[in-house]
Design a protein that fits this description.
By secondary structure, the protein is mainly α. The protein has a domain of about 190 residues. The chain is built from 13 helices and no strands.
């Protein structure tokens, strides 16, 4: 098995990811929701998802160990550690992300004084969602998508093609969301594509490290989870959160595609990353 994984690293990673998330993680999620003791809604939301969202991360760690041993795993995990120079960029990402979320709410007709007051009073809940998004969801996913898959693809194809493949894998990994209707699924896949462009750009321009990508991923996800829980607690129309989220998805589509349009030559280049080396002198799949 180890020999096969070394010979087919990309295929092996994808197989391990979907097996871990759907054949292992999903049954555990269902069991947790059925049998876990009573707990705060925010913990129930995230703890039930741990084994699903850590599928890509677990697959990346297994593949890294198979290809590069324990030292490779340590190097991969170190890419999550922030540098001092990352912190101003993290604050900028937070400001841009939450500013976009506020604009999406306002454009959905929800940003009344009462709504704004409720959000302001729930600052602790918002911080809790953001922290759990980083620890549970963003780290679990980004160790896989940008920690393993993107660097491996960049060893053989251009930035554009590598990002398109990652976007496809990332989008279809969210399988249940694709059954929410044709228009909703299309918009979701479009936003996944747009975000993939943004994440590749951030990853590449910050030394192929993962910290800022993790922060950006958490910033993207937090508003939806926060809005849904706050709407439930306040008895608001759940359609408000759904409408605002659709606006945000369109923003991500336009931002990602606009970035590619203005920097198209950069995307057509093939620049192998510094962080990785072929597993076995072979990249056949």
């Amino acid at each position: 098995m180890t020999r096969w994984l070394r010979k087919h690293p990309i295929t092996g990673f994808l197989l391990l990811t979907f097996v871990a998330s759907y054949l292992i993680g999903t049954p555990l999620l269902m069991a947790y929701l059925a049998w876990a003791p009573a707990q705060p809604p925010i913990l129930r939301t995230y703890l039930s998802r741990v084994f699903v969202v850590y599928g890509p991360g677990c697959a990346s760690l297994l593949m890294t160990f198979a290809c590069h041993g324990r030292g490779g795993v340590v190097l991969l995990l170190k890419r999550l550690i922030p540098r001092v120079s990352d912190l101003p960029w993290a604050l900028l990402i937070l400001a841009a992300g939450f500013g976009s979320a506020a604009l999406a709410l306002k454009s959905s007709g929800a940003f009344t004084a009462q709504f704004a007051e409720a959000i302001g009073a729930a600052g602790g809940l918002l911080a809790g969602h953001f922290a759990l998004q980083i620890l549970v969801i963003a780290v679990g996913e980004e160790l896989g998508w940008r920690g393993w898959l993107l660097p491996r693809l960049l060893e053989r194809v251009s930035r554009l093609r590598a990002t398109l493949i990652v976007a496809a894998a990332w989008g279809f990994w969210h399988g249940p969301l694709l059954f929410s209707g044709m228009s909703a699924a299309a918009l979701f896949l479009g936003s996944t594509l747009g975000l993939s462009f943004l994440f590749t750009w951030i990853w590449s321009h910050r030394g192929e490290r993962l910290f800022l990508v993790v922060v950006t991923h958490a910033t993207v996800n937090t508003p939806l989870f926060f809005w849904e829980q706050l709407a439930t607690q306040q008895g608001w129309d759940p359609g408000v959160a759904s409408s605002a989220w659709r606006v945000l998805e369109w923003m991500y589509v336009l931002a990602g595609c606009g970035l590619v349009a203005f920097t198209r030559l950069w995307w057509l280049q093939r620049v192998p990353p510094d962080m990785s080396a072929p597993c076995d002198g072979s990249m056949t799949n």
